[in-house]
Design brief:
Keywords: Cell membrane, Membrane, Transmembrane, Transmembrane helix. This protein is mainly alpha-helical and 192 residues long. 79% of the residues lie in helices and 0% in strands.
């Protein structure tokens, strides 16, 4: 039931982001001149690296889900024996990569503000910060969910399918956030 509820909720989130994409494309069609000047400040190489960090975090997340489905909440070997890691270790790594992504976004915002591109500078700045900002808020929500799932893994002696369900639905959300970012990245950084 939790999986179905999460999928239904993610469908509503999909509509939310579809609205943000509509805003972005509408403003772009009305004021294409702003895109010529606004995109010149984007650091595409940095954005590619930051996007790669988020995509890799989805891979770590999926390794954690596989461990959760095996009933392995935590590692059974040494810290550097990756094949014996459990859900907890993979989710901690996912959390670290997700946090690095958010820090990268904050760094990019600081760079853009330094170049005069702010939320209120023009329509391009508004569209950029609203779309990427709401995505960042969703990433932070996913990081909080990871902390809750990691915390719950410490409170159970035996990791069962019931505990794994939380890890699985958290992964649905994380993969959704990842796919949305890939679409945003393509629209903002590639279709300049």
């Amino acid at each position: 039931m939790a999986s179905v509820g999460t999928i239904v909720w993610l469908s509503s989130e999909l509509m939310f982001f579809a609205g943000l994409f509509a805003i972005y494309f509408t403003i772009r069609s009305v004021r294409p001149d702003l895109w010529e000047t606004g995109t010149e400040h984007l650091n595409v190489v940095f954005a590619v690296i930051n996007t790669s960090i988020l995509v890799i975090s989805s891979l770590w997340c999926q390794f954690g889900v596989a461990a959760a489905e095996r009933g392995q909440g935590s590692r059974t070997g040494g810290l550097f024996q990756f094949r014996q890691w459990g859900m907890r270790e993979w989710f901690v790594l996912t959390y670290i990569f997700g946090s690095i992504f958010v820090a990268g976004q904050i760094y990019e915002y600081a760079e853009l503000v330094e170049h005069g591109l702010t939320l209120s500078s023009d329509a391009y700045g508004s569209a950029f910060y609203i779309t990427t900002g709401f995505h960042g808020i969703h990433v932070i929500g996913g990081l909080i969910a990871f902390l809750l799932i990691i915390g719950r893994s410490f409170t159970t002696r035996r990791y069962t399918h019931r505990q794994a369900t939380g890890a699985i639905v958290t992964s649905y959300y994380w993969h959704f956030v990842d796919v949305v970012w890939i679409a945003l990245f393509a629209v903002i950084y590639i279709l300049r």
